[in-house]
Amino acid sequence: MENLTLDREKLTPKDFSSGMDVKWCPGCGDYSILKQVQTILPDLGVEKEKFVFISGIGCSSRFTYYMDTYGIHSIHGRAAAIASGVKAANPELDVWVVSGDGDAFSIGGNHFIHLMRKNFDLNYLVFNNQIYSLTKGQYSPTSERGKITKSSPFGSIEEPFNPSELALGAKASFVSRTLDRDPKHMQQILKRAHAHKGTSFVEVYQNCPVFNDGTFFAYSDKETKKDQALFLEHGKPLLFGMNDDKGIRLDGLTPVLVDLNSNDFSADDLWIHDEKDRTKANLISRFFDTSFNGTYFPRPFGVIYADERPVYEENLEHQIEEVETKKGKLPLNLILSGDKTWNIL
Amino acid sequence: METINDLPEKIKTIKQVDKIVVRFSGDSGDGMQLTGMQFTDTAALAGNDTSTFPDYPSEIRAPIGTVAGVSGFQVHFGSTEIYTAGDSFDVLVAMNAAALKVDLPRLKEGGIIIANLQGFDKKNLSLAQYPVGVNPLEDSSLENYIVHKVDITKHTKECLVDSGLGIKDIERCKNMFVLGLLFWKFDKPLDNTIRFIQDKFSRKPEIADANIKVLRAGWNYGDSAEIFTMQFKIAPAKLPTGTYRNITGNHAAAIGLIAASEKSRLPLFLGSYPITPATDILHDLSKYRGNGVKTFQAEDEIAAICSSIGASYAGSLAVTTTSGPGMSLKTEALGLATMLELPLVVINVQRGGPSTGLPTKTEQSDLLMAMHGRHGEAPLPVLAASSPSDCFETVYEASKIAVEHMTPVIVLSDGYIANGSEPWRFPSQEDLPEIEVNFLKVANGPDGKILPYKRDEKLVRPWIKAGTKGLEHRIGGLEKENETGNVSYEANNHELMTKLRADKIKHIQDFIPPAKVDNGKELGKLLVLGWGSTYGAIKTAVKECIDEGFDVSHIHLRYINPLPKNLGWLLYRFEKVLIPEMNTGQLLQLIRGEFLIPATGFSKVQGQPFTTAEIKGRIIRMS
User: Fold this and answer.
1) What's the confidence (pLDDT) of residue A36?
2) B333 vs A73, A78, A89: nearest CB
3) Which neighbouring-strand residues pair with B554?
4) Which helix (H) or strand (E) holds B441?
5) Residues contacting residue A319 through CB under 8 Å, at least 6 positions apart
6) How close is the nearest chain A Cα to the Cα of B256, in Å?
């Protein structure tokens, strides 16, 4: 791939801007995501015409119109299914799905889980703002219990999805989380997602300044970030807190909060993040919404799970080659005649 | 009873007949479909014209011996041209009491019943809900028929007593006894079926041997048993010269797609979700991996069509196959494909509806849905196949229209022709019309601008394959500005685009053949106008009526949207127009609406195809 781009001029983020007026609300987290995506694309070593962005319906899904790449702004919930067809038809295309929490997990829930399972080599971004914004403020499948919205004036009575847990349950091969207000982190995760061979699920916490303002600020504001967010790195201990003085230790299959100031434990005793460990990834994904002996843990960001396994379109191409080698390509005239014919004279 | 081996020489007569209808009827597990198909293959190979009608329940194994579990296979074969599977049968093979109960009403007076004795024991009679003590084989209720009671189970067991096979395997061979017996009855050779058995059980030679042995025993039984004294001989049909094969509608559709893919040099992509009676197209195409066919069994009907839309954007000949309920689920995506103006072939193998309806039975009730079943103004070409082999041409034509006119196209088939079969004088690759595909290679607007919705003289936009250098562009479900394809909410633009999308479809009229009279004169008293799978019944009825001196003609439509240009002119040349349909009058509405003529409908919604007699009766009444 790298070689192919040598004789071409180096692309810049501007090359990926379609020039259409961007019409998200002022202060919308989507602007940051658009910017980070446009920033990293030139660095991926992929020819521009290979990029295809497929989106569904919702604020997030207007994304495709703003990218100067191939793209389809499709129908609600179906981007994953359309992307499957694009990638199966032409594995050389570099496919990105852009979706929101309603689009991906509500109306598109079935396609989401099956895409994770089938494992096409593509990237699936969900802009999670925990609210339906384009329809002006109803609770979404990721809204917290008790959420007051226009369609839940007395509070939502529904249990929300935990997207990374859902993706893991659906056998995703890459599960990650980042947030709009941390551009550097987002760029890193987007690059990791692209480098991963298989379906890369990136949940982006995205602020909706109109209908759900400030929901995720605790994970980016200086005063709270260190205590409430856990930034994962492969091979590094699970460490957080204002002075990096809190850690997480694993006692059997139970995570335990550890105070590193207490002298009982040192950083060496902590849980070392292993992206390839599915069981532990599942525990991490549940840190913030599951009580472990009364303790809740901070919100994890970064790559929660990544382990490559065969991808759909390669298996498909491989099978085609295999059958062709074994049985040969049937000439059309033989297909038309079948193997039993007779003559009328 | 005598055993097979010690029967005396007997005297037999051979009678020449033109055509015969045989109905194989038994429990779902009795192998009637396979038996019927083997019989048909052999008849076809012997040069008979054939038409078949598999008629089975939607349950895989309904309770054994009950009326609900009866599975039938009807074959009409003859030395003259055959267009339907037959209104009634000459021979009924009844493997049990339930089968007799279900199918006796359609056996001709004086017809032959071959009854499997064991299927009429106390238990089976009770399961078929005959009153206690009543056995139709033993009272006088069948005295108008010729009844052969054969202890098929016993003969099969005797034949395989030394085979070393278990009782279950032995019982499974009994349909071969029936088949052998029928081959004797109609003077057909066994070799085709023997080859089939050897192939099917190539890894289980003991099972193959057992089946062949029983098949031969059935033939020998007919040849030597006293009760069978008459054989029928059906000479080869005088069909147009050429090479033939037997084909079902679903297989014809599958290979029609492969042919279209090869002729257009486009890779074939099928996104599909299993649904009766369309699934066989998915099965068939899955076998052609070696030819690069990409079949994608999607997670649901919506994903099936959406993945196809994606594949079309990436430059494949994209197809989705389904039946009624699946079609309902696909409607939103079909609207998207219409808006995007991407080629897509949608095959709807219709079945009885609404809702789950009659999954294994036939109906033509999705026509108006095909025409109008999308929100907004979303016109699409609609084509209908008229017979099993016609599914090939119709699907090929649909593919050609889809890629040459940049539009989704709906093909309507139905359960009757999808599963039914007929001999087909198949074309060769060289006979097939070319399919022209021109992907846009360079920007088509001024100053290197890309105009994805700039139309040619046919009002067709360019197909731009994702991945083409320098032609990056976005398309979407929002209304788009003329030519640029950019999002536009401008009032007059929306009206213009609505009109352009409609005119593009209307324009296809210039590229399809005119309607022509299939049978009869181009001017007269009565025209029977049909579409889809009613072809055989209408053709036979009209032919017979003309022979009997009635002034009647027949036109059959493949292109329903747009209709052939000359159709109105033709319709106005008849005093009356009769439209028989397996629905409550859907084409009728379209024709009345389009041409303002007082056409008369004739509807049947029983999950069963029209009989020739029904249509004939209506023609005579209207004449």
Assistant:
1) 98
2) A78
3) B519, B528
4) none
5) B289
6) 9
Domain boundaries, chain B: 10-233, 246-431, 446-510, 517-622
pTM, two decimal places = 0.94
pLDDT band at B3 (very low <50, low <70, confident <90, very high): very low
Q: Using 50, 70 and 90 to split pLDDT, how confident is the model at A345?
A: confident
Reduce the DSSP state of residue B278 to 3 states and report it.
Answer: coil
Residues A304, A309, A313, A314, CA torsion sign: positive
Contacts of B566 (CB under 8 A, 6+ apart): B514, B515
The one-letter amino acid at B360: T
| Confidence band, pLDDT 50/70/90 cuts, at residue B11 | confident
- Looking at residue B58, what is its pLDDT? 79
Across the interface, whether the CB atoms of B310 and A65 are under 8 A apart is answered: no
The CATH number of domain A3-220, selected from 3.40.630.30, 3.40.50.970, 1.20.1300.10, 3.60.15.10: 3.40.50.970
Closest residue in chain A to residue B339, using alpha carbons only: A74
Which among A18, A81, A93 has CB closest to B303? A81
Reported CATH class of domain B246-431: alpha beta
Q: Which chain A residues are Cβ-neighbours of B439 within 8 angstroms?
A: none
Q: Give every CB contact of residue B15 below 8 A, 6+ residues apart in sequence.
A: B230, B231, B232, B233
Chain B residue at shortest CA distance from A110 = B299
User: What class has domain B517-622?
Assistant: alpha beta
- Tokens coding A8: 């071409």
Distance of CA B441 to the CA centre of its chain: 40
How far B340 CA sits from the closest chain A CA (Å)? Answer: 9
Contact B460, B405 (CB under 8 A): yes
The DSSP bridge partners found for residue A79 are none
- Residue B244 and residue A80: Cα distance in Å, rounded? 44
For residue B205, pLDDT over 50 is answered with yes
Residue found under tokens 């990721």: A142
The answer to whether the beta carbons of residues B37 and B22 sit under 8 Å apart is: no
Burial class (CB in 10 A: 0-12, 13-18, 19+), B561: buried
* Assigned token pair, B419: 């599963």
In this complex, the residue of A68, A86, A329 whose CB is nearest that of residue B290 is A329
Residues of chain B contacting residue A51, judged by C-beta atoms under 8 Å apart:
472
The conformation of residue A215, written as its DSSP 8-state character, comes to: T
Partner-chain residue, chosen from B258, B267, B470, that has the shortest CB–CB distance to A89: B267
